[in-house]
Amino acid sequence: MLYASGGDRAKAAEFAARAVTRAEQYASGDAKSDLRSGHLAEAYLTAAAVHRTFGDWDEAGQAVARALAIWRGLRNPGALALYRKSIGEAESLVREVAAREGRSW
Question: 30-48, pLDDT tens digit by residue?
């Protein structure tokens, strides 16, 4: 988000994409780990926030929808508690994207 807040779209997108790629690799190491999956969802939320910063609403919607889909699949109460704030941020972003795009995610 540092690059996004500085207005560097290319660097922000690059780092967000790298974060998602690394998180996907990490999560695939133990697909049954809710903590690893939650980490992946967090990376998608970061990517969504970067896209929102630059007004890329469709991309933001896709990324945040992916994050929420992952979090909804978690069953470990500890993992859910750990990501509760991020889940709330993602739900808020979904509403913002829906208002901008005129569709629901």
Answer: 767 999 999 999 999 999 9
* pTM, rounded to two decimals: 0.85
Which pairs count as long-range contacts for 59-66, CB under 8 Å and 24+ apart, including other chains? 60/93, 60/97, 61/94, 61/97, 61/98, 61/101, 61/103, 61/105, 62/105, 64/90, 64/93, 64/94, 64/97, 64/105, 65/94, 65/105, 66/41
Question: What radius of gyration, in Å, describes the C-alpha atoms of the chain?
Answer: 13
Residue labelled with tokens 């699949």: 73
- Rounded Cα distance between 99 and 58, Å, is 12
Please report, as a single letter, which amino acid is at residue 54: F
Q: Residue 42's pLDDT is what?
A: 96
For the domain 2-101, what is the CATH code? Answer: 1.25.40
Q: Is residue 76 scored above 70 in pLDDT?
A: yes
Look up residue 42 and give its two tokens.
Answer: 């967090």
